[in-house]
Amino acid sequence: MPRPTIPDRRDTLLDVAERLVLDRGFDAMSVQSVADAAGVSKGGVYREFASKHELLDAVLQRSTARLGDRVDALTAHLPRPVPLSALYRAGVEALLDDPLMSAAMLDDRAVLGEHVRAVGPDRYRARFRWITGHIEELRAAGQVRADVDPEAVSLALSSVTIGLLSASALIGPLTPEQLRGALGVVAELVRVGIDSDSGAGDGTVSRTHDDPEAP
Predict the structure, then answer these.
(1) How far is it, in rounded angstroms, from Cα 37 to Cα 93?
(2) What mean pLDDT do residues 122-148 have?
(3) Cβ neighbours of residue 208 under 8 Å, at least 6 residues apart?
(4) Of 87, 88, 83, 74, the residue nearest 182 (C-alpha)
(5) Interatomic CA distance for residues 131 and 121, integer angstroms
């Protein structure tokens, strides 16, 4: 007897896959386990996604969009272009609230497993290039100091963020509040040392999440 169809099957499969990846890790998750949890046949999953990797890619892309929406909401009250320190602070807040995107940022093999190795370095280089380009836009709009090297700032912020997100495993359990506090210090350093007041309120709209590989 055929299984009944379910509304919004694609979104349901993505919800189930995300939950299973967080619960079991990507390597332990199977297409069959997604099908069983969603109440569809294995073939029903393959009608939406050609492979297990394609399914996780779709989960990550949706999570990236969700992260961007959260950053937009957190910065909606600020003048445009949004200062780099405020964008950084909002991005950190959104990232810490999203376990899957935190795992992606950390290349966490316990969660993403084989998929981390399968993606290769290009994805992360693309993220780095996007951040650099975004800082270049802010500099052109007068929102960061003219003497700032966008690539150097991008590398520094990326390295600090990844390092702090890894700190809990390296120096002992840390609470989200401790991580927020430390990353807030970084945002304040950016505000004092990199942000410029000269371009505030000029009407230019900064990018927040138009890159599919962000954060």
Answers:
(1) 31
(2) 85
(3) 68, 71, 72, 75, 82, 87
(4) 88
(5) 16
